Amino acid sequence: MSTRCFCRSLQKLFLRGPATRVARLCNSLVISDEKRQCTPVFLQSRNFTNESKGVNNFSQRSHSCGEFRPSHIGEEVKICGWVQYKRLMFLIVRDWSGTVQVLLPESMLGVLKDLPFESVVEITGIVHARKDGEINQEMETGEIEIQAKSIKVLNFCQEKLPINLNVNADETNEMQRMKYRYLDLRSEQLQFNLRLRSVMVMKMREFLHSYGFVDVDTPTLFRRTPGGAREFLVPSNYPGRFYSLPQSPQQFKQLLMVGGMDRYFQIAKCYRDEGSKPDRQPEFTQVDIELSFTTQEDVRNLIENMILQSWPSFKEQITLPFPSMTYHEAMVQYGCDKPDTRYNMKLHTVDDLMLDCGIQKIEDNMKRAGAHCVALVVPQGSMFSRKEIENLHIDQKFILVKIGKSGEFKANTNKFKSNTMQRLSSELKVQEGDLMIIVCGEGYVPYEVSGKIRTKAASLLEAKGVKFIPDNQFNFLWIVDFPLFLPAESGEGLESAHHPFTAPHPEDEKYLKTDPLEIRSQHYDLVLNGAEIGGGSIRIHDADTQRYVFENILQEDAGQLQHLIDALSYGCPPHGGIALGLERMLAVICGANSIRDVIAFPKTVEGRDSMSGAPTEISEDELAKYHIQVAPRKTTEE
Amino acid sequence: MSTRCFCRSLQKLFLRGPATRVARLCNSLVISDEKRQCTPVFLQSRNFTNESKGVNNFSQRSHSCGEFRPSHIGEEVKICGWVQYKRLMFLIVRDWSGTVQVLLPESMLGVLKDLPFESVVEITGIVHARKDGEINQEMETGEIEIQAKSIKVLNFCQEKLPINLNVNADETNEMQRMKYRYLDLRSEQLQFNLRLRSVMVMKMREFLHSYGFVDVDTPTLFRRTPGGAREFLVPSNYPGRFYSLPQSPQQFKQLLMVGGMDRYFQIAKCYRDEGSKPDRQPEFTQVDIELSFTTQEDVRNLIENMILQSWPSFKEQITLPFPSMTYHEAMVQYGCDKPDTRYNMKLHTVDDLMLDCGIQKIEDNMKRAGAHCVALVVPQGSMFSRKEIENLHIDQKFILVKIGKSGEFKANTNKFKSNTMQRLSSELKVQEGDLMIIVCGEGYVPYEVSGKIRTKAASLLEAKGVKFIPDNQFNFLWIVDFPLFLPAESGEGLESAHHPFTAPHPEDEKYLKTDPLEIRSQHYDLVLNGAEIGGGSIRIHDADTQRYVFENILQEDAGQLQHLIDALSYGCPPHGGIALGLERMLAVICGANSIRDVIAFPKTVEGRDSMSGAPTEISEDELAKYHIQVAPRKTTEE
User: What is the least distance, in Å, from the CA of B346 to any CA of chain A?
Assistant: First the structure.
């Protein structure tokens, strides 16, 4: 068999192994190309044999597998890597950077015979050009091969891997992949995602450092936040006393501003104990930023520039400034505070048109203060089956109108006046095949309902092959002017829409003592393709206002936050900041289904580590050392 | 009062406020001077008024207080900061970068009247040159002053600060400083230490990134390590099951190597639950590094270069390579495995000389196998008082000889033969005023005892004004060839000298099944000025060896680490790494007394947060949500 045939038969393998894309990533994403290319003076002075080794310094290899090009022909090289494939006298060796073909002489074929895939080898040899007919254009290193002079097995792979590293295989076998995460990490996708994460974070750090931000580590063993029901507890050496793993460094970042640190950032580990939620992890990472003497606009500007600076060059480029929208606009146009603006399909307020629609109940409803009718037109939605429509959570009370050929209407109620339909369809510019949904309700309710239908309908259209959401497009969006307070979920009193440290909008401060629900906050959320990837605010810097908010508006026990109120009273500068959810942002950028795909060792949805079995049982004796014991399970009677 | 007089009276204040040293630090340590000096293209395009604002971008100020120089004269500027001092029509405003003098017009003196120190102000004005006689050479901005056009009080400091920000004051009042840490952060020392920490870590990151290291976040909610008595527990959602906060990412870094990540680093938060130890914190930071296909020498070379690259330019420069010493050499020469080599005072093995010393007990002892006599000469030690000698923990069994005028000896025993003394003093080159201490014992014991005396004696000499340890000198030192196993502390069987993943020295592998105590490990420690600041090793990469070490040598339940042994069996590359104790290293570099001085919000020695009161009591109801309760206190009878 000629090498050419061999190559062709391997072609598919090369394309899917962690070779090409990761290699390309490394070429396009390295932090300091200059540094890698030219050896720093202090290394030259120590007589490294290869002055531009870079990623091969401090190791036993001379080159990485994926870096070979015709310029290397004639060089004697040493590579280390995994046996990705072998056949006859050929071997494909893989490392993080890609794959290379090795040709073994007759004398070494004995080694090859019993060498399992995924064993680890060290090979020395000479780089040779492949003959014209044997060049593999699909392989980054396809113009050369290494003729081995020695091969050493560094470690045998003792068993067949329990998972397939092929990126598109085994998708169903999530549990197995989680259990053998350390093998799944060899896959192209995870190598790519984790390396991208590392580089993007580094670029953010470079940006922040260059603007004078100080990277400060804040403690994770802290005191419980009032109402922090979702915090993990940590038993301490003091019987009955517990630390708490904070949900964010919020208090610390503000205290750093009191301390004159001026500009703070931290890639901070945060904790949230909330059991199983699909896109949540018990520990997650925040790009946490705070600065003094700043404004909303300054912070937004800062974050936009940081994201631009760290944006991967091989993704669709983004432009500044990011658009912004008030909370009210977002709710009315998209029915949610984190709209995906990659597609249009906006909501329409059709109050006037529906006042005389023929449906008594709606007409009655519309007479009430705060009632609204919201219409949503789903392009080509009339092809949805009854089942699909049910899955959109469309209530039978909603009005559904399918737009047939030449503008024919087919509604789910025959009371709907046809001239209302006419006017609606003309105003909303419906087209043949569209589905119109009309929802009536009070306040933001009909908008929120329609907004959920909008999102689901968009996914459904995509799933049905209607190209609706553009690929590789990144729509950042600021949402501003949130309400500062909301009626408490308990039904009594008020609660903070975000957190009690958020400053009121300067224009609305006057309502603080009279009408707190009217106050807009200085909070801002950053949304990317329909995911909330960050939020922040200008904070209250005045001790009296902070105390008033705690005690009089939120009716919390201010004693628990006395240290913060005290701090504000000793000359706290005006300040504000933001926290970006790093994993969420990366998941969108990587096109990952879950934030687990951008975390090296994630927990399952249930919060377990399937690899190690954590959390595990601890014996009573051991627990006694922590002054705790397991509480007896409550019976159902109790 | 002339401005000149005013300046002179303030001179002391300027020198001690967080002005000069921090400003100098910022000038010497900024990450990317080019970036700060020239505005990136994307900022220019957004029409910033001042194209080289850098640290003032994204804020309301035009300049930082400490940056004013004669080149600014004539500019209209806006500054924001704290009122450090005021008198008559003058105001000294401070921010992170330094201080500047502001001259207020008559019309604004009303504002000044009731303005407490440490209030926060925003001032606009014009930069003016000071008259020749009024220039303050001691002040970085002493050639100019700002003539105010407006002053706005951004926040009043409502009370006198409870601590003095003067760097040398209040040293005794540690508790108060910990409680008001957010104010202490305004002090020069903490501003300096935290900014230095941020910059050094950033430089390490830059170095590691440029050599292809991937920054990977590993989980901190993990499973309990076998024998990990010092780990914090975290109750989970599953009754009776607990996570553990790991002491280091050791397992994860090795699993990343199995996963083909090739080069990993993380500035990792680590946890250790060990109650009160003076220089320990329940949470601390490790510069955690691991790489594949490497050797001991490679790792040491890597770390040396990383430290060189991140070394502060204003500290005494260091040179590569760092010296290294075997564990045995360190023990025999310095009596400890982390010797401070900034001063000599080595130990001397004087076995032969003491065989016939006249003291029967020693002569008898020396006949036993493994017995040694160790002599230590403390220069000028004969001036120590009896009390001081007691404090050196010198046992009455040791021989003490004071060297008097013209070589006169004064020993604490008259049985000591004078010709032995003669020979000792000539061999050890003692001088007038020296103190010679001779300790006899078995194995390393007399060395360890003498080593402790050596360290204490050096501190005592320093305390007594004998300049003995050079200032601003940084002696890095590698310690290698540690034993792999030690007799277990429990008295039965063996335990790992460092951890069970450490690989044996290749030359000694043959003893694995026959004589494990003879095996040297591939562990290395990094020592700086007598503090252990890091340690690492080449790891076992072969599943069979790892299983053998667990099961046969350490007799641990290998089941608890089954995931790691499994991982090694699927083609694990040879690998090794290191972890540096970031706070310990920084404390030495900053000349800090405690690692608490390089941590923004440290815990007290007792593990408490005096600011917030953590750890706090949690109600039974709250604990029930975590499926735990406080264990009843054991009575003394039990």
Answer: 31
CATH of the domain at A413: 3.30.1360.30
* 3-class state of residue B298 by DSSP: helix
d(CA B525, CA B536): 6
CATH number for the domain that contains residue A142: 2.40.50.140
Q: What is the pLDDT of residues A196-246, one digit of tens each?
A: 999 999 999 999 999 999 999 999 999 987 766 689 999 998 999 999 999
A482 falls within a domain: yes
**Which chain A residues are Cβ-neighbours of B32 within 8 angstroms?**
206, 209-210
Pair A490, A543 in one domain: yes
Question: Is-contact A439 A361, C-beta < 8 A?
Answer: no
Q: Which residues in chain B have Cβ-Cβ distances shorter than 8 Å to A237? A: 273, 275, 607
Q: Which of residues 81-100 of B touch A (CB under 8 A)?
A: 82, 94-96
Q: What is the largest CA-CA distance in chain A?
A: 92
CATH value at residue A588: 3.30.930.10
User: Quick one: tokens of B123?
Assistant: 């001032």
* A95: pLDDT strictly greater than 50: yes
Final residue before a domain boundary, out of B155, B177, B203: B155
* Per-residue three-class SS string for A45-58: CCCCCCCCCHHHCC
Question: What is the domain count for chain A?
Answer: 3
Residues from chain B contacting residue A286 (CB–CB below 8 Å): none
Distant-in-sequence, close-in-space partners of B5: CB < 8 Å, separation ≥ 6: none
CA separation (Å) from A352 to A31, A424, A427, B46, B415? 57, 10, 12, 43, 116
Closest CA to B301 of A122, A34, A62, A42: A42
Residue A103 in contact with residue A144, Cβ under 8 Å?
no
- In 3D space, the residue among A311, A247, A230 whose CA is nearest the CA of residue A284 turns out to be A247
Q: Phi, psi at residue A5, to the nearest 5°?
A: -60, -45
Is A305–B43 a contact, with Cβ atoms under 8 angstroms apart? yes
Residue B65, min C-alpha distance to chain A (Å):
12
Residue A423's H or E segment, with its range, is: helix A418-427
Q: Are residues B493 and B548 in the same domain?
A: yes
B26, pLDDT greater than 70 = no
Q: C-alpha angle A455/A461/A462, rounded to 5°?
A: 90
3-class DSSP state of B69: coil
| Minimum distance, in Å, between the CA of residue B3 and any CA atom of chain A | 27
- Is A538 domain-assigned? yes
Closest to B459 in 3D by CA, of B570, B546, B548, B342: B342
Encode pLDDT of B517-529 as tens digits: 999 999 999 999 9
**Residue ranges making up the domain that contains B278:** 191-325+476-598
ipTM for the complex shown: 0.91
Q: Which of B155, B182, B209 is the last residue of a domain?
A: B155
